[in-house]
């Protein structure tokens, strides 16, 4: 017989979720203020609480990292979807403009929030400091990797957009490879742009990356044609 949850426990769910949102917001603000290398002590202090409380809500550093990535990815995906939809909905623009708009949305995050970008892409919280605490036993296959990080989520999104515009089943099957290849291309150039600034403005970098990405996409999917200007 299935037993329902104790009402005294379930009534706190909304409060717990609200507290998680508050802690993620405080962590994001702390990353912006103190840099991507901030640790759990700094995040807890910025939230006006202790690491014990943070661990209670997220389990360990990996849980907090995943929650921050989910928040950042949600904002970025909304921007990418809006930008690409606007381009695809304009008869004078078309698929190439949609690729450009998506790339530019990614680069805009870096330009506006460089420390937050470093945090979610390079994972300093997970790769530095003492071993993470876990309040529950690890699964048999080891601690979960936060696979749904920013790059993975965006790669899947790009793959879905590509697949939606291909008619050939074999080419649609390769959409995931292409989507993640494009994101890898953009990430590699974006990381260098951030680490070694040479004065290249964002709009110019967008043009360079769009040229590279579109040359591959148009070659593999010749039926997706650029709308003449």
**Largest sheet report:** none
Oligomer: single chain
Strand content: under 5%
CA-to-CA gap between the ends? Answer: 66 Å
Q: Could you please describe the fold and organization of this structure?
A:
This protein has 229 residues and is mainly α. 70% of the residues lie in helices and 0% in strands. It contains 12 helices and no strands. The chain has helices spanning 7-10, 13-34, 40-46, 51-58, 61-88, 95-112, 114-122, 124-127, 150-164, 169-173, 175-195, 202-220. Helix 4 packs across helix 5, helix 5 (61-88) runs parallel beside helix 9 and helix 6 runs antiparallel to helix 12. The protein is globular. Residues 131-147 and 223-229 have low confidence and may be disordered.
Secondary-structure blueprint of this entry?
Elements: H1 7-10, H2 13-34, H3 40-46, H4 51-58, H5 61-88, H6 95-112, H7 114-122, H8 124-127, H9 150-164, H10 169-173, H11 175-195, H12 202-220
Task: Please outline what is shown here.
By secondary structure, the protein is an all-alpha fold. 70% of the residues lie in helices and 0% in strands.
């Amino acid at each position: 017989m299935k037993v329902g949850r104790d009402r005294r426990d379930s009534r706190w769910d909304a409060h717990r979720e609200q507290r998680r949102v508050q802690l993620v917001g405080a962590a994001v603000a702390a990353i912006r203020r103190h840099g991507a290398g901030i640790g759990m002590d700094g995040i807890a202090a910025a939230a006006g609480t202790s690491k014990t409380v943070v661990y209670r809500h997220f389990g360990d550093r990996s849980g907090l990292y995943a929650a921050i990535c989910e928040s950042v990815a949600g904002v970025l995906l909304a921007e990418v979807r809006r930008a690409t939809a606007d381009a695809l909905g304009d008869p004078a623009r078309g698929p190439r403009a949609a690729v450009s708009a998506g790339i530019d949305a990614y680069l805009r995050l870096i330009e506006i929030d460089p420390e937050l970008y470093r945090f979610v892409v390079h994972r300093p919280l997970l790769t530095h400091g003492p071993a993470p605490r876990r309040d529950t036993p690890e699964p048999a296959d080891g601690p979960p990797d936060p696979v749904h990080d920013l790059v993975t989520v965006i790669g899947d999104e790009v793959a879905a957009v590509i697949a939606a515009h291909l008619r050939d089943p074999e080419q649609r099957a390769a959409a995931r490879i292409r989507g993640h290849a494009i994101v890898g291309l953009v990430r590699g150039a974006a990381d260098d742009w951030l680490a070694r600034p040479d004065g290249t403005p964002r709009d110019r970098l967008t043009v360079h990356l769009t040229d590279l990405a579109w040359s591959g996409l148009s070659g593999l999917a010749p039926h997706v044609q650029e709308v003449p200007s």
